[in-house]
């Protein structure tokens, strides 16, 4: 991710409905599938650290990020269990964590070495929670600004996990109601106004933010129980084979 985006991320992770909804969905999955009480959790690619801060309330959470800017913002939050490091070489001993979260990170990195390292540090009964952007046909300039390597389909994610020692116990697309707005907004920005995409990390109006928090609450109940066949994001829970 571009360095200048970390300040935006730091501010928006607190109150933007999308970040809040994703965290709540992850917590629902941990509560449903967690292998232990007070689990040890690793947030890999922790960004500005809000996920670590929240996850620490349901267990004992650590964060890793390869960006010094990210680590700086984590420290600004007062987080202590934060390390500079990469997913291909996680600086922890084997079978150290009950939960590993990989939230909008896998699309940035090499799949095989990252998933192999996660398998190494994850307990035998541990769970891996992954969220990724969905469908290459939704690719835009914003993906390039974020330095994505790919967007995922269900089959792509299932294949990557299966080939690296994991099996999926829960998977679903989510945010289906954003597909049309995302296509229209990004088309207008790129084709009509020729926007150079300094950042899409912008907070919408308080009313819109409130509205989507309410919609996403309903969606979380659906995703937790059922499979949604399309959406702008794809989320899954996996365990080691």
From TrEMBL:
Keyword Methyltransferase assigned: no
Q: Which residues cross the membrane?
A: 171-188
Citing just one GO molecular function, the answer is: S-adenosylmethionine-dependent methyltransferase activity
Which InterPro entries does the record cross-reference, listed alphabetically? Methyltransf_11, SAM-dependent_MTases_sf
Residue stretches in coiled coil: none
Q: Which domain of life is it from?
A: Bacteria
Family matches, as CDD domains: AdoMet_MTases (cd02440)
Q: What UniProt keywords apply to this chain's record, in alphabetical order?
A: Membrane, Transmembrane, Transmembrane helix
Query: Domain Methyltransferase type spans what residues?
Result: 42-130
State what protein this is by name.
Methyltransferase type 11 domain-containing protein
The species this protein belongs to is Candidatus Woesebacteria bacterium RIFCSPHIGHO2_01_FULL_38_9
């Amino acid at each position: 991710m571009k360095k200048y985006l970390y300040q935006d991320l730091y501010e928006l992770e607190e109150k933007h409905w999308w970040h809040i909804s994703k965290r709540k969905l992850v917590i629902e999955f941990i509560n449903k599938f967690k292998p232990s009480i007070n689990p040890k959790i690793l947030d890999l690619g922790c960004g500005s650290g809000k996920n670590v801060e929240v996850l620490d309330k349901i267990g004992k959470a650590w964060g890793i990020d390869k960006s010094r800017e990210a680590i700086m913002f984590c420290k600004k939050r007062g987080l202590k269990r934060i390390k500079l490091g990469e997913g291909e070489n996680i600086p922890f001993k084997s079978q150290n964590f009950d939960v590993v979260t990989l939230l909008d990170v896998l699309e940035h990195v090499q799949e095989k070495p990252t998933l192999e390292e996660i398998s190494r540090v994850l307990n035998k009964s541990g769970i891996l929670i992954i969220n990724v952007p969905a469908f290459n046909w939704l690719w835009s300039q914003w993906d390039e600004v974020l330095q994505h390597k790919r967007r995922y389909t269900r089959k792509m994610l299932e294949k990557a996990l299966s080939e690296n020692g994991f099996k999926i116990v829960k998977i679903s697309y989510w945010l289906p109601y954003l597909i049309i707005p995302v296509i229209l907004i990004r088309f207008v920005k790129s084709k009509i106004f020729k926007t150079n995409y300094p950042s899409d990390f912008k907070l919408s109006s308080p009313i819109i933010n409130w509205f989507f928090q309410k919609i996403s609450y309903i969606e979380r109940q659906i995703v937790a129980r059922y499979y949604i066949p399309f959406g702008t994001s794809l989320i899954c829970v996996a365990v080691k084979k």
